[in-house]
Queue: 3 jobs
Job 1
Amino acid sequence: MKFKSVTPQLLGLLFLGLTLSLAACGGGGGGGAAPNATITGTVLGTTLMAVDANTNAVVSSAGADPSTKTFSMQLAIGNNYKFYLLENEGTPFARSYPVYVFNQGQNQNVFFIGQANTIDLGFMDTASGAAVPALGLSQMELLGMSPVSFDSTIPTSLAGTILGPADMQGNWNIHGIADNGAWFHTGMNIASDGSVSMGSPVSNIAGYQSALAGRTMSLVMTPGGVMTSPGDSDFNAFMGSTRQKFIATDLFSGAHQMFIAQKAPSGVFSTLDLQGPWQVQGIINGPGFNGWIQGFVAFDTGGNIIAFSTVITRNDGAAFPLSGTAVMQLDGEMTLGSSFHGTMNNNRDEIIATLTDAFGDACLLVLQKSTSTSHTNADFGGTWYMHNVSVISGSADGRVDFGAAHYNSAGTASTATMERFSTNPAFTTTSSSLLSFSMTINGNGLMSSMSGFPGMTGEAMIGGVMPAMGTAGFSGFMSMDNSLFITNMTSTEGGTNWNMMILQK
């Protein structure tokens, strides 16, 4: 630029202005708006949100592409940000995961962005209950995104979607099964500091009962609802969005176990709460038979199983006997015969139970109230957390799995994109190799077909009833409120496995 005449005073003013401009821009870029960095990545959830770390105000929100699950957003450099992965927005199951990295011996979630680069965070793994980028820390810092601190303050817009220690507190009813042929049930209290006090455990195996009675543990929960136990790397649990149930898998006293915890109800119960039909699903482990069961049962107002109403079968086609008159205590504790012990939830639509069946084998059962409803494949939509317990043919050991999955509804089928199971190498956190398979559901909540799952064999149910198929097959049922989905299936991965897979939103 040329000036026709420049006085010393004007030159001084121009020099001062240029100096201030350069200082304000960090030494370059002129006096315009600060340049932007591009933040990208791959998620199972729906949206990545960025907030100003100083004000907690939302500055950007980027939805993931429905097909590729990738997102992209522009952020001004020179600022500190926090990021949250949002899932199941606009539903009662909304949940948010803060983006964390582990740096200098601690979790950090405040990031300074100092360079106008494209920063691809890679696959955002939520197995821990936080969203952890696949991008390595050194590469992240090289691109100009530096973790600087930790801030637990939650943006107002995310209230109710993030869980905390208070959601664990209180009394819980526990029912579970282990692959040593044991079932167990007990009460559990979780204190405000996460310490656990066991009640008086009951099990069909005396040694396992004694081990449970002497167990000491404490629990911590991430904002995404994943629960772990310090000192026990095998323990994984996930709290449902209702805060009324969590499901856990563990390796304890030499046995793989899965248990379901219901928040101890506060109401008064009677056999009237049993009236009507219930969908039954369960897993069996014992010296006589390993496998799974499914069917339905109906009770009258007196707790009697209605004659000819019980259609429960094992996966080998054999009938699973369940009969008699239930006794319901005021606190929701239920017995039926000599070994059946269950508890009902506050909503009166779920019973978790353990028993020794007529063949002498341990069983874990879930009974869900079955009423007229109108399920569609869209009910699969969103992110779920899975727990799976397997009993394996010809082996004394079973397996437990834990992980997340995101389901996309598409046409007449729902395509399920899996993140991973923590103990199964067939499931990975590499976005290019995420597993997809299709599922369909009928109006009553029963899975009517499934294809593409690795190693799965068998046919669909016929009219909602499982036919006799030897060691093949599967069944599934979704709860009335769409928060719980249980799949029983037989797979041939590494041998014949009988699985009970429970999914929670």
Job 2
Amino acid sequence: MKKTVFLLLACLLFIFPGVAGAEPAPGNYGDIKGWAENDIDAVTGLRLMKGTGTNNQGQLIFSPEAKVSRAQLATVLLNTFNLDYGYIRFIKQPLASDYFGDVNNSDWYANSLVMGVINNIFVAGGDFKPDSPASRLEIAQAVYRSFQAKNISVPMIQLMPIFEDTGTLSQDEMNAVVFVSNTGILKGSNNSFKPMESMTRWELAGLLMRCVQLMAVNENSLGGEIQLSSGQTFYLSLPSNPTTGYSWSLKTGVEGEVIAISGSTYLEDDLDESVQPTVGRGGRQYWHFDALREGSTNLQMIYTRPWEDTETQSFNLKVRVTSSAAKLFAKISSRFLYSESDTISVNLNIPVISGLTDDSIQFGFNSRWEKDAMDLQDRLLVEIEDYVKYNQQNNFPIRPFQLFTNYRLGSINEKMLSLFVDYYQYTGGAHGITERRPYNYNLQSGAKLSITDLFQADYDYRSVINQIIREQI
């Protein structure tokens, strides 16, 4: 019998459990015309945000121009990232009043705030000021910390944004700004990030959908598998075009109550509200799934017209749900290092592992990743001196060097870790070059893993992997 096959090249992003209650299905809000209607309908369909009440005519209202309060921020982060206690166990149940002096334990946002503190999204102590507007910087930091708390690695452009109003920010604050800017979650405009400005509810709806888009399992996971603990949730996203009459529907996967759909929505590709909907414009359909109990199921979605029997496309995903005790004990976070001069710009995103029981193995991993990045930086610093001197002597233009690094987590569990780091460097030529280095390790011994280590001796793993590649192509 062959060993369990770990697909190092696949990365299914998932998030952890939440406690959001059920809400009525979103209706037609009477006050969102021209205010990011697509995003607002999407986040309410996925149960991430809800309306603020009704108007005099009995219509639901969303209050799109209202400022986002700190209490609202805590609640939508709980709904979106499904924050939980993680590995922490308490002698007594933690309460919001344990952390802040101006919060009552019966307040509607109290549980959300507790989860935010436990996951290091909010800093305990003093007053929380729940009714105060949340600034763009506070929101950027909270979103960045939420991705870190859930150990969600996302691809992003390797670029150091240049803003005229972030010079006084601390390194931690700037890390959050870089993250939300490079991932497209929250960008600046006209060379300004406006860190102290507040955010409206319609702007927050768009931000949350961009988070969902980054986290969702999608069509590139065709034939794949995702593993969750009971109580966790995940998002699924598939391309769709309802103007043609086709739509996705669930064929199998929720029998036996292993998983269940807690929300769904459709979002058009073109988010420019000035563009009127046209026939033929497509988008993506989204689902929010909850893992209810231990077991496994084959989730199958089919793309059909309701009046036809023939399916044109299908999506299959094997979902394995384990007991809640089988959570990962290790996590990967980021360490950012920046420096900039007239001749070289350095933006290093270095992976950092924590939670291993063997401190020496953990130190070895972190030292290796930092050394690989710093060795490359030191080499370029030497090269830039010779480059500048030569070009000045020959009256050649000087093009500043660039060094960017970014990593992507592939797989992590109690036995193994797989990630890669992209090292991009520009040294004055026609274009830059990216080197991608894989790091695959046995977390229990610290030894490097090769692909043969994942299979029994003489097992024909090449044929299996090649067949998977052919099916995906």
Job 3
Amino acid sequence: MRKRDGSDYRPNAGETPVWTALCLGNNDFFDLMSQHFTEFVSNYDVDRAWLDRVRSITDECYCEACIRKIKANGKDPFDRNVQRQLQNKNFIAG
């Protein structure tokens, strides 16, 4: 995920990494996670699984993928309400 100013949520040099912000609207990331989950449930006898931290840490993402999706729908990617609508859609689709 990217902030409005284009920066990301990675820790600065010397900081201890904690939760990071992964964009659920990024199809490459979503496809990779889907492949991992498919492999997991196909190769192991499981009766349930829990995916931790699948909710975005913010309601806005200004990464290339999110900006492209918003612009493709003829909307303003810097409109906070439009951003929240996209992130809610990403969460539900994910």
